[in-house]
User: Fold these one by one.
Assistant:
Number 1:
Amino acid sequence: MNSMNIKALMKKYQIIPRRSAGQNFLVDKNILQKIVLSADLKTSDNVLEIGPGLGILTEQLLETAKKVVSVELDRTLNYVLKQEFRKNKNYSKLMIVNQDALELKPVDIEDFFDHQPYKIVANIPYNITSKILRKFLEFKYPPTEMVLMVQKEVAERLVSIPGEMSKLAISAQFYSDIEIVSTVSRKCFIPAPEVDSSIVKLTIKNKFPEIDVKKFFQIIRISFAAKRKQLKNNLANGLHITNSQAEAILTKANIDPTTRAQQLSLDDWVNLSKVV
Ligand code: SAH
């Protein structure tokens, strides 16, 4: 892999990484390769990259992809990227956008990729991981897959099993198949963050076409409203029904009414939303 020297770039442009923007630049070539390999890029692929930073991943994505759109919030980094990639042989395939990725609208993505499917491949800022996941999982124009560098604990939460399920885990598992590709030491970044990371791959699938999605997530919101309370109480409160009505619904869905929300499996939630 013929990749750029991040330290030299930081020096050249006098970049002082901003912690508030989650700026931890990847410098480990093996990890870089793992990200690119797990994205399984084809020459026909469109890629949305969120937070390209100094472009270490961007450069590799451009080697194979048909088109890469890199959305970077930081204005200085946008300038650096444009300066540096101007000389790149694949520059015509790259679009650098100075924007907050959280503000992207479906029409923006349609414009970027001419209504074609796209993948997200990104080493994203940790402080917006949940927001990015939620946004693009629930997006009107979702990617076909997401290969993301996330905080190790977040990766573990995404693949949680019943007993420790969170709303984020349910949502991720509802919309996708999730695989932890690799764990990544904090030493692979400059500056080193305070936590270790993992590469995760989410393959987006329409797993439950028969489900009313709005109702499904409404029930989950209701059920997690008071985490210490039994499921039947949360359900009764949220649906404005009596405790015994809530109990009847849960029993019909084969769920113990005294259980708590984090104990349910994805299949339990699917059953429940069919019964309600
Ligand atoms: N992908 C690069 C940089 C990772 S650091 C690498 O692997 O080295 C995270 C990057 O996300 C930073 O460049 C930061 O400026 C950018 N960023 C932070 N918040 C953002 C947002 N809301 N939208 C787009 N980019 C953002």
Note: Residues 21-26, 50-53, 56-57, 71-74, 77, 100-102, 123, 125, 128 surround S-adenosyl-L-homocysteine (CB under 6 Å).
Number 2:
Amino acid sequence: MAQRKPRALVAGNWKMNGLKGSRKELAALSRLLERASGKPACEIMICPPATLLMAFREAAKGTGIKIGAQDCHVSESGAHTGDLSAVMMKDAGAKAIIVGHSERRADHGESNNLVRAKAEAAHAAGLVAIICLGETIEERNDNATLRVVGSQLKNSLPDAVTAANTVIAYEPVWAIGTGLTPTADDVKKVHAHIRKRLAAEVGDEVASRVRILYGGSVKPSNAVELMAVENVDGALVGGASLQAADFFGIISAYL
Ligand code: PGA
């Protein structure tokens, strides 16, 4: 039976960027979407810093743009000074949480086990977990990409994965914020491998419908090519999601 392609997702990861005035970028994006010739065939999400979640939830009302968060603690509440729980993100307006971004794995020493626990916390709060995977430049040069990404996937994946509650984002660490991207052929190989490893964990049916995003220096000029690659179901966008015009340029790959 032919599998239906999952609905694509283009998500903007604002990282530690954005103050309250940044709401104007969301308004500008919504105007661009309104003026577009058709409706993009993808879901659109912005993951601002946690301080902007509530303001963005209000600003996004009626626009169809979803709001997501960038990280969460594994617990629901408790004595964890400075941390924020998945339930709090939901309360503030998030529909999804990015977990295991390479910047968190590197800057905060997050292990696959911790990433899995965070994905479970997102699920327990009724949110989508966007689980990030990706190899470093050293691992790529050692031809270890598929092995590293496969093992991150297996070990970061929570129980009870469904196509609705989990998104995978393949983000080669060396492509993030550098302007470098893998070739379309490389992306195709890694995404096919992720789909296969996913099927081994959750079965063919679920694996065929889980969205696998590509992330790392996606911009308007390469979005059409990257989004057309087999098994690429959207993008996780950093730098180019901060300006409405650039982000819209990427979303336009689905217009
Ligand atoms: P970039 O970041 O688009 O700025 O390369 C992507 C990401 O880290 O999610």
Note: The mean pLDDT is 97.
